[in-house]
Design a protein that fits this description.
The protein is mainly alpha-helical. 95% of the residues lie in helices and 0% in strands.
Length: 40
Amino acid sequence: MGKQSDSIVAKRFLKMEMLRRGISTEKLQSLHNKNNLNIQ
């Protein structure tokens, strides 16, 4: 029982981490694109 709930929590944490990283990378990408537009 405890192990099962731990894995569920771990998966949830992983999903949150992935979402957070995805958002941060999207922001970085958009900033990068803006910088490229400014240079050109």
